[in-house]
Automatic annotation (TrEMBL):
Cross-referenced InterPro entries: Fatty_acid_synthase, HotDog_dom_sf, MaoC-like_dom
Xref: PANTHER family: (3R)-HYDROXYACYL-ACP DEHYDRATASE SUBUNIT HADB, 3-HYDROXYACYL-THIOESTER DEHYDRATASE HTDX-RELATED
Signal peptide extent: none
Residue ranges annotated for the MaoC-like domain, each copy included: 11-101
Family, similarity comment: Belongs to the enoyl-CoA hydratase/isomerase family.
Protein name: MaoC family dehydratase
Domain of life from the UniProt record: Bacteria
Organism phylogeny: Bacteria, Bacillati, Actinomycetota, Actinomycetes, Pseudonocardiales
């Protein structure tokens, strides 16, 4: 059974400028800080940055991968603490995501709800604060000891 303290398998995700273009098209967010170095640096940013909601969605994959899909996620919230700066190259920015079961409660339908604390870092610094998902679990899920 899933237990408090269990570590989810970590994720390493690359975000490229091409990802930003695709996300802009899907979301309708064409703010030039997400594609123009000139505009981004002109407003005081270190360069083009990933959309916050894209970063949040990518970090959320740690729980959807672990739980077997998005239907198990009951809630998910974050605070944006730092931007992910995406260079104009083929490698992009590396976002590293870890998760830990920080709570476990029984739900009304007999399943368990795992509270998962998520850490997402870029360039060694946390980019999402208070990142927590609540996930319905009803069987053993793979974790790291």
């Amino acid at each position: 059974m899933t237990a408090v303290g269990d570590q989810l398998p970590p994720l390493q995700l690359r975000v490229t400028r091409a990802d930003l273009v695709r996300y802009a098209g899907a979301s309708g967010d064409f703010n030039p800080i997400h594609w123009s170095d000139r505009v981004a640096t002109g407003v005081g940013l270190p360069g083009v940055i990933a959309h916050g909601m894209l970063t949040m969605a990518l970090a959320g994959r740690i729980v959807t991968d672990w739980a077997g899909g998005p239907a198990a996620v009951r809630s998910y919230g974050v605070r944006f603490t730092r931007p992910v700066v995406v260079p104009d190259d083929d490698e992009g920015a590396l976002v590293e995501v870890t998760g830990k079961v920080s709570g476990l409660t029984a739900s009304e339908d007999g399943r368990h709800i795992a509270k998962v604390s998520i850490t997402a870092t870029f360039d060694g610094k946390t980019v999402l604060g208070r990142a927590v998902a609540e996930v319905a679990v009803d069987e053993d899920l793979p974790t790291l000891a």
